[in-house]
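Structure, all two chains, one model.
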Amino acid sequence: MTYLITFAIIFLLAVIVIQIGKLTELAASIRGEEVVDRSSTNTQGIALIVFMIVFLVGCVWSTLYYKNQMLGYGPLTSASAHGFELDSLFNVTLFFTGIVFVITHVLLFWYGYKYRQTSGRKAIFFAHDTKLEMIWTVVPAVVMTYLVANGLITWNNIFPTLTEDDNYLEIEATGYQFAWDIRYPGADGKLGNKDFRLIDLASNSLGIDWSDEASVDDVVLGGTDKILLPKDSLIKVRITAKDVLHNFYLPHFRVKMDAVPGIPTSFIFTPVKTTQEFREQLRAYPEWQTPADPADPTGPKKWETFEYELACAELCGNGHYSMRRIVEVVTREEFDTWLAGQKSFYTTNIRNTSTDPYKGTKLFDYEIKARSRELKSDISSYLKDTTGTASRNIQLKHVFFETASATLSDLSRHELENLNKLLKEFPALKIELSGHTDNVGDAVSNLELSKRRAESVRTFLLQLGADPARLSYNGYGQNQPLESNDTEEGREKNRRTELRIISK
Amino acid sequence: MANVIIQEEDVLIKEQGYDDHFHEHHHGDKYQAGFIFHYIFSMDHKIIARQFLITGIIWAIIGAAMSVIFRMQLGFPEESLAWIKPFLGKWIVVDPATGIGKLAPEFYYALVTMHGTIIVFFVLTAGLSGTFSNLLIPFQLGSRDMASPFLNMLSYWFFFLAGVVMFYSLFLSTGPFSGGWVAYPPLSALPQASSGSGSGMTLWLVSLTLFVVSVLLGGINYITTILNLRTKGMTLWRMPLTIWAFFVTAILALLSFPVLASGFFMLIFDRSLGTSFFLSDIFIAGQALDRVGGSPILYQHLFWFLGHPEVYIIILPAMGLVSEVLSVHSRKPIFGYRAMVYSIMAIGFLSFIVWAHHMFMSGVNPFISNFFVVFTLIIAVPSAVKVFNWITTLYGGNIRLNTPLLFSIGFVSMFISGGLTGIFLGNSAIDIQMHDTYFVVAHFHIVMGVAAFFGMFAGIYHWYPRMYGRFMNETLGKIHFWGTIICAYAIFWPMHYIGMAGVPRRYYSFDTFEAFKHFNDLNKFITIFAIIAFFVQLLFVINFFYSIWYGRKMKTKNPWKANTLEWTAPIEPVHGNWPGNLPVVHRWPYDYNKDEREFVQQHIPLKEGEIGDH
């Protein structure tokens, strides 16, 4: 019914409109077309002038009205070094185009009014004028040359070619439907390689290639963590995409670049204001003094909650409008402290899992150091123990053998050198080295293997100069499993070398 | 002498015209006898022009209605859209608890995409160039018809077929294509990436491939006709600017649309045959694709190699129409005729070497952008020349302020406003910030959307008597003009500000971002004016269709006292345009108020000592 009424109203309106049209035509035939034409021409002429004035005044007024919300004119000045150049280029262009805009519009509408048809007058015959035409060809050409030169200088400054000597921080942004992941290099300052074929949503959503050692200390910020950037540091963002095109867009920093699957792009910029400094800048403006949440008038003000934002500026599907990340600029010191405190993705998620290429073949410095502290604390806690709760059995976690052999792998060196040091530190210590296996294979040969392994550990320690009287060894084969031998994880735990403190 | 108008037959043409022995052929009657061949599969350029126009108007209504719907989402995101559920069905998601209906994001993107595709291709390419090239090329050149009326007929029907396929895609359960009118892969290549990239995209590609065929058939016809079928005395330098504009437009179309077609074919291969022209290193929907080595940027090059000339394919015909209308109604020659022609050529040529200015931020080597900045900004020079020439054409005139002329003034105003913002965007450094923001939306809507529509309206109001033998209503026309220009500026001017604040285009909602959500009032303002603009256009539609049957009748052959040849043909259109001889041309078309005569038509012989060219 509503629709019926709507259609009826529309139909009626159409009829009215047609009647108005007919009426004017009827009036024209009664009053004479000449008379009507003349009065209509005058009305239209005046309308042109009125429109021109309202339009031009409206343009100026609305520009002033929205000034503070537009980049560059109010508090929202550039937050990056190159942004100021870009804003000034915008203003230079605005200056020239503004002049042309006003002059041409005034002439266009003014002529329309001034030369409107009157019965007594005749139009002039003015078909061309070489001098005039030269002027308005050459003047725009000169102005355009100036703008082009200015623009290209700015453009090429914004896209410098960085060399190894330049001191810059390279981070990586990866866009996907519909979020961003950000990767920071660790202490080595290098981002490791990645390959989309290595992507595994559960364990490696960026497809980082762990066999590239540079990737091992890379920090990945997923989820909603703030993206931290250091102030006054040259930052190169390597921009990549996983699925479709995205665009890495930092409006406050005048940074924008497509993220293209298969073709890494980059943008180089220097943030010049910390988030806090930018907030202070906003504070001076009354519109930023209002409460951030209108429902909570006593809560924080708008300027206090201001954040830099990362957005997507290339249509990438239904969630295109929601790819928001908060960016926070801090001082270089704060940034360095923050980054040093971040755990690398590899350490927290990959190390010693099935996808770790270094499992059993490589120990990292931080692991050796951590392990050495751990072993020392295990031993000393037994030595100082008065309650009888500390265990006298301590596993030598970093002692490895070649498969089915008693030959120590090279990696075991670190743990055993460390143990040797501890033996010197605690001279009263006597230990038994014991070998253990899982239940795979024949129990007798397992027993034999475990003995030989314990012996080779002892031999190695003796070579380092340990006192043979303080070291005994034994093999227990599969007889003392820590966990069930039914699972691979259990068996892995059961294959081990331990030390047992005989006397303090 | 020239002011004497002979109703039925022009004595001059009868006696001094060019006899091409047309009367000896009777094929016209044979092929135009029945209703089907007269009105449907017509090969007459006048009928085909009207077919293009009316189809264009229908598509324009659809395309505009779509923009109104997505503008409601942007301007009034809190309001319920449940009332359009009967039309849009599942695309309006009604919250069962509150009863508030929301536009689904996937359909928002489908609407944006379809709006662009429909308006750019179906309305402003086919509807504008198709209509007026067909109507005016044979008429203004003094030809019987197009060089190949049959291809001309096919050109319309391929366009029609393209329209049918696109229309059908609107009703797919997965929705029409929703990846933007530019259809960048991988989004457009992978059905996993978006629901609209499934069947919707397939039909989009089929439709536009048919459309390319239509454009090529039309274009080759326009060029051939202009080069071969000009009447006696009609040298190239005596052609009206409309024809020059259609000529360069057709050349642009012929050179650029095949490149787009090649891009489409590669995209079709990538979608269906497992090739990797545009795909590489993609992990989507939980799996890594074994498609490597392609480049998504290659598609962008191919697309914009058409895409940029395409905006001139749209605007050049409008420029031609406006040049003619301004001259006729100012009662003055167009100022700087030759400069105008050279500008059209320069713009046409430059349009082929600027395409990558759409791609400054797409990951092409920044060094390459240097060249494209230079070429792009050179276009400002011929464009400026044209603007100054139009304004000078008004200077010293005796201007009839009727609807066609008002729309022409509106066109020049829009072309200035939108053209000047192009100077910002063409400078790659500024484009870093402005790319893909509302500043771009404002720029291209004003300069090639609204401006082209204004040119088209000027053309329709001016040549309506030539098409239908009746006038459109002037009062309604003027209301239409003022309503449209006010709404157009009210809609697009504020978008500059939103863009200068950095708000990206193609956002379903601005609320996610602190930086983009400050413009609720402005967005409401824009939406309200978009709705008004839509209804103002309905005024035009009513006026158009009503006037076909009930408009004021055209009583004289040359109501505007214009010089071009279409106004020498009989009021009641005939097959072959002129019943007997063809008019012979003696002069250029802009002899207005040259001596004592207010206007001198092109077929009037020269007086002693008079020169025909300018």
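The two ends of chain A are 97 Å apart (CA to CA).
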